[in-house]
Amino acid sequence: MILTGFAGLVAGACSMAIGEFVSVYSQRDVEVAQMKRDRKNAGNNDQESEKEALPNPIQAAAASACAFMIGAIMPLLAAAFIVNHKIRLGVVVATVSLALVIFGWIGAVLGKTPVLKSCLRLLVGGWMAMVVTFALTKWIGSTGL
């Protein structure tokens, strides 16, 4: 279980990082094209200040990968040494729920947004993801795919 969980952690972190890189790089391309059009229309050649405002795809990818790894390691460590399936399931749900609330709080504080709204959004979204993952795992396990 630990090896499979770790493999999922690495694969998920890579997937999140690649997705974030592509997304932010695409946004960067759009912003660069818009800046070129704006400079052409205004006759302005101040490129240095504009470059500082552009998103950094490598930084975004690294942040996304790290966030995924931190989020994935918590339930893995919480469940790694618990033998009883029902207790393990409860511990994982509790650990992940606590982590989701903490991450929601951190995001709200850093983004200066309402804390309760951020925590609830992350908690409900996380619970939905857990239910879908659990259901798919049960379905795949019962059908022998």
Description:
The chain is mainly α. It folds into 2 domains: 1-36 and 56-81; 83-144, no CATH class. Helices cover 87% and strands 0% of the residues. The longest helix is centred in the first third of the chain and has 41 residues, at 2-42. 11% of the residues are buried.
What's the Cα radius of gyration? 20 Å
| Major sheet characteristics | none
Principal-axis shape: elongated
**Structural class of the helices, strands and pairings?**
mainly alpha
Order of helices and strands: HHHHH
Distance between the termini: 19 Å
Q: Considering DSSP H and I runs of 4 or more, what fraction of the residues is helical?
A: over 70%
Low-confidence stretches: none
Q: Kindly state the mean pLDDT as a whole number?
A: 87
Total number of distinct structural domains: 2
Secondary structure: number of strands: 0
Strand fraction equals under 5%
Q: Count up the helices.
A: 5
Chain-wise SSE layout:
Layout (H helix, E strand, L loop, with lengths): L1 H41 L4 H6 L4 H23 L5 H27 L3 H29 L2
Helix pairs in contact: 1-3, 3-4, 4-5
Compact description:
The chain is mainly α. The chain has helices at 2-42, 47-52, 57-79, 85-111, 115-143. Helix 1 packs antiparallel against helix 3 (57-79), helix 3 (57-79) runs antiparallel to helix 4 and helix 4 runs antiparallel to helix 5 (115-143).
